[in-house]
DNA sequence: ATTTCATCCACATAGTTATGTGATTTGAGG
DNA sequence: CCTCAAATCACATAACTATGTGGATGAAAT
């Protein structure tokens, strides 16, 4: 029996959801509330498996509720409900530990399926929302390395620099003279268009060379 | 009519998929191939709306095929097919511009729905895969640490260090003596548990202090 | 055959960084 | 009031980094 706690301000939608979930075998609605004002007490009292959180509610809304819940409970699966697939909210919700993000127009049958998914460790998402997540993900994990054409050796040296090795230590590590290390590093600076160790290290991180 | 191009090495599965898709109104399989060896010519010839790419194929596999396709075509929707939800492959696929990622055990009805989703700009994903994406996403977008308790001034100094400023330049920038810069930096090193500029810069990036 | 490039090494010098040992002032909190 | 931490500054020394100039080798590309 999957125990669900429901937060939704619209009485019709709340009733509809409750009937849908309670009327399905294997599911049960523990309680439902119109906002997250007392979410801590409520979650601690009911110990739900899944929490459905509407994003837009008067009073403490779903995003604030999510943050509050995650401060003391990280096991309950939390699914966000929303009318719009608003980019900013999706980002905030995911960052704060939501397990899924569903549009309210999701058909009832699917909703049950999604709730089931969540309890099994999945992250149910409306595909338009998944598309946004992928887009954000791609932006931060772009493939942009190898633009600088560092040679194999130069890459090794750069990695050791990033790890905080001094020239002398790099020489020992790679079995080359310190002067050789120097000339590699000079070449690296040229290729990265920088002129100090810190800048090279910073650039290595920023451009995902490491 | 949604035009689909199919890459799948297993003849049975390939036939099954073709019959399923071709047998559904609004869908049509343009052609199917057993690997991505000639993916460029094929995609340019057929101009499909959706490409289904099996990840594991002898010869040029799905991931390599994906990379090849994305070098000249960014409009076709590409859905990856796989038996396992292997973390590394998911990451690679998304990073290289895949639009969705489906397990082969996806029921036929759903598969069609997913293909439809993709053409409408969605990113259909099996929920176990979505969960992985969310996890990766959370790891890189965690709320910043503030565990090191750097003071306001120390933070300023650290930022300038990261930007490649020398002690002297930092002093000029902040209107303080170089010796003061030194003592701030020493304090920063203590707090970050490092003992060189590069290590501090690296830690600043790694722990999202910047 | 010649050029290019990565890799290797040497020596010298100016400038920077790391470390230590002080010290003063100021504001917040017990 | 007293203490503590942050912020400021000074002087000294050892170690390290940046920069320049110069050279040697070998493999790959033209």
TrEMBL record, chains A, B:
<keyword id="KW-0597">Phosphoprotein</keyword>
<dbReference type="InterPro" id="IPR001789">
    <property type="entry name" value="Sig_transdc_resp-reg_receiver"/>
</dbReference>
<feature type="domain" description="Response regulatory">
    <location>
        <begin position="3"/>
        <end position="119"/>
    </location>
</feature>
<feature type="domain" description="HTH luxR-type">
    <location>
        <begin position="143"/>
        <end position="208"/>
    </location>
</feature>
<keyword id="KW-0238">DNA-binding</keyword>
<dbReference type="GO" id="GO:0006355">
    <property type="term" value="P:regulation of DNA-templated transcription"/>
</dbReference>
<dbReference type="InterPro" id="IPR039420">
    <property type="entry name" value="WalR-like"/>
</dbReference>
<keyword id="KW-0805">Transcription regulation</keyword>
<dbReference type="Pfam" id="PF00072">
    <property type="entry name" value="Response_reg"/>
</dbReference>
<dbReference type="InterPro" id="IPR011006">
    <property type="entry name" value="CheY-like_superfamily"/>
</dbReference>
<dbReference type="InterPro" id="IPR000792">
    <property type="entry name" value="Tscrpt_reg_LuxR_C"/>
</dbReference>
<protein>
    <submittedName>
        <fullName>DNA-binding response regulator</fullName>
    </submittedName>
</protein>
<keyword id="KW-0804">Transcription</keyword>
<dbReference type="Pfam" id="PF00196">
    <property type="entry name" value="GerE"/>
</dbReference>
<dbReference type="InterPro" id="IPR016032">
    <property type="entry name" value="Sig_transdc_resp-reg_C-effctor"/>
</dbReference>
<dbReference type="GO" id="GO:0000160">
    <property type="term" value="P:phosphorelay signal transduction system"/>
</dbReference>
<feature type="modified residue" description="4-aspartylphosphate">
    <location>
        <position position="54"/>
    </location>
</feature>
<dbReference type="GO" id="GO:0003677">
    <property type="term" value="F:DNA binding"/>
</dbReference>
<dbReference type="InterPro" id="IPR058245">
    <property type="entry name" value="NreC/VraR/RcsB-like_REC"/>
</dbReference>
């Amino acid at each position: 029996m999957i125990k669900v706690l429901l937060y939704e301000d619209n009485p019709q939608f709340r009733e509809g959801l409750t009937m849908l979930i309670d009327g399905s075998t294997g599911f049960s609605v523990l309680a439902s509330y119109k906002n997250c004002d007392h979410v801590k007490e409520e979650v601690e009292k009911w110990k739900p498996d899944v929490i459905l959180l509407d994003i837009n509610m008067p009073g403490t809304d779903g995003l604030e509720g999510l943050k509050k819940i995650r401060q003391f409970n990280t096991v309950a699966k939390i699914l966000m409900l929303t009318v719009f697939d608003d980019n900013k909210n999706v980002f905030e919700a995911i960052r704060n530990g939501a397990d899924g993000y569903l549009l309210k127009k999701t058909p009832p049958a699917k909703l049950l399926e999604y709730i089931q998914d969540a309890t099994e460790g999945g992250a149910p998402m409306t595909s338009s929302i998944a598309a946004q997540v992928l887009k954000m993900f791609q932006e931060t994990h772009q493939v942009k390395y190898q633009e600088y054409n560092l040679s194999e050796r130069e890459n090794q040296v750069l990695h050791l620099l990033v790890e905080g090795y001094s020239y002398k230590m790099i020489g020992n590590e790679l079995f080359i003279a310190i002067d050789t290390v120097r000339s590699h590093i000079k070449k690296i600076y040229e290729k990265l268009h920088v002129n100090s160790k810190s800048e090279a290290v910073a650039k290595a991180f920023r451009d995902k060379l490491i």
